[in-house]
Amino acid sequence: MKRSKAETAETRKRIVEMASRVFMEHGLSATGISEIMKKAGLTQGGFYRHFESKEQLIAEASEAAYEQIFAVAEKAVAGKDARQALDTIVQSYLYQRQMTDPTCLCPLANLGSELPHADDQVKAVVNVGHRRMVTYLGALIQQLGIANYMAVADAAFSTMVGAVTISRIALTGMSERAVLENAYDSINLLLASAPRTSVPASVI
Q1: Does the global pTM surpass 0.85?
Q2: What is the mean pLDDT of residues 116-133?
């Protein structure tokens, strides 16, 4: 029986969501199409009815991961001032792998070593996600009255990505926590020492 457009769209969404989860957890090269389709409750043969290639699925799964990150972030910072919101975002990102929701894993931190070998459509999506994250942090940092807020945001996010990446290869839980805690402290030091404008943006 022919599926409706709504059913087809729902199936495609299910595949993308499962792919996002499995790719972030196990990596790109280690994850096959058959594994994703099986976890999604579908047969491997149906994959090419929805996607042209694995690369297309990786790109869409990465985009879905960023959408989920921002959706969760918006809820988490609701009602908080800029400093509280920034602290919430930084901690949530640094401890993303300890959260109960595995759909909030960032492609940059969890797939970073494989991304240089990905095709252009995947790199494009991840680059958009990167700039979106920096812009999001920059908007919060600007409200703190920090002068070069985008540069500070870029440095802070690079620290966050690097810390999560390094923490994944830590040999013990103690060393993993140390990497993440040091990154958190470094970002707070960066924010505290950054040059300020004469009047914080939040009060203009």
Answers
A1: yes
A2: 96
